[in-house]
Amino acid sequence: MPLPQKWLLIEFLFLTSPIATTPIDTSREARQSSLRFTTLSRNLLDQ
Questions:
Q1: What sign has the CA pseudo-torsion 18, 20, 44, 1?
Q2: Long-range contacts of range 32-37, CB-CB < 8 Å, 24 or more positions apart?
Q3: Spatial separation of the C-alpha atoms in residues 26 and 31, rounded to whole Å
């Protein structure tokens, strides 16, 4: 997968996750989503 497509996918995942609209420090669910997003991003970038 070319790099630009990776970044589009990462941006899409970020924009559709709760952390885009929820303050992380007040939402446990948002923190978990952020963690999943970070893990997924690393996996994509390592490929």
A1: positive
A2: 37/13
A3: 9
Produce one character per residue of 9-22: b if its CB has 16 or more CB atoms within 10 Å, e if not. eeeebeeebebeee
Count Cβ atoms below 10 Å from residue 33 Cβ, excluding itself. 20
Return the domain boundaries, the chain: 3-46
Residues 19, 5: Cα–Cα separation, whole Å: 22
pLDDT tens track for 1-47: 566 677 777 777 776 666 555 554 556 666 677 777 788 778 877 76
Structure tokens at 24: 């992380």
